[in-house]
Amino acid sequence: MSDIHPTHIAVHQQSRQFEIHFSDGSEYSLPIEYLRVFSPSAEVRVAKQRGELIRGKEQVNILKVEPMGSYAVRIVFDDGHDSGVYSWSTLKQLGEQFEPNWQQYQQQLQALRAQVSDHPVVTVLLFMTLAESLGEEKLEIELETEKETVLDVIRRLRDRGEDWHSLLVPERLTITVNKQFVEAEQELFDGDEIAFVPKA
């Protein structure tokens, strides 16, 4: 394994695929979502040790791939995750184990959806000028649909009044769900914690 190295790496942003060929003749085309979810970073490892599922990364893409010496690359994702250093052996292993890994991940997602209660509730945290202007720091919001997103919650909050409507503009917010940076299209589950921070 130590002598095996990549001979070709390509990022296909439109199809969200990461293509890699190795010197032993093996070739893999892996979803970028898969690389993000199975990042070798300490952040992801700790989250998994806590039993947390890295999710909502269907639309994630790769901004750049940076060489790290002659043994690895650092992948910078557009959701802000940039601490994953992927060694050649890690990428080879992710390619070889894609089918069982991906199947297990999809099963975990399905199980999580099945656990949603009849009245799922999420917590919304407002920071900085949002909390000051709106007079709220923490809200409990009941989800109304089976696959409600952060954007759905934002739309409902904006209906509360003119101040809410003018301040809660998705493009002007940094959004996290369970302390993971996400886009407004992130699907929500019972017990999730959403944080809105105004962008500078």
Rg from Cα: 19 Å
- CATH-defined architecture of the largest domain: 2-Layer Sandwich
User: Segments where pLDDT lies below 50 for 5+ residues?
Assistant: none
Q: Given the C-alpha coordinates, what overall shape results?
A: elongated
Can you describe what's shown?
The chain is of the alpha+beta class. It folds into two domains: 6-114, NE0471 N-terminal domain-like (2-Layer Sandwich), CATH 3.30.2020.30; 121-198, Roll (Ubiquitin-like (UB roll)), CATH 3.10.20. It has helices at residues 32-37, 42-49, 88-96, 98-114, 129-134, 150-158, 162-167; strands at residues 6-12, 17-22, 27-31, 62-68, 72-77, 84-87, 121-126, 138-142, 173-177, 180-181, 193-198. The strands form three sheets. Strands 8-7-11-9-10 form a five-stranded mixed β-sheet. A three-stranded antiparallel β-sheet has the order 1-2-3. A three-stranded antiparallel β-sheet has the order 4-5-6. The mean pLDDT is 92.
List keywords for this structure.
single chain; 200 residues; alpha+beta; NE0471 N-terminal domain-like; Ubiquitin-like (UB roll); 2 domains; five-stranded mixed β-sheet; three-stranded antiparallel β-sheet; 7 helices
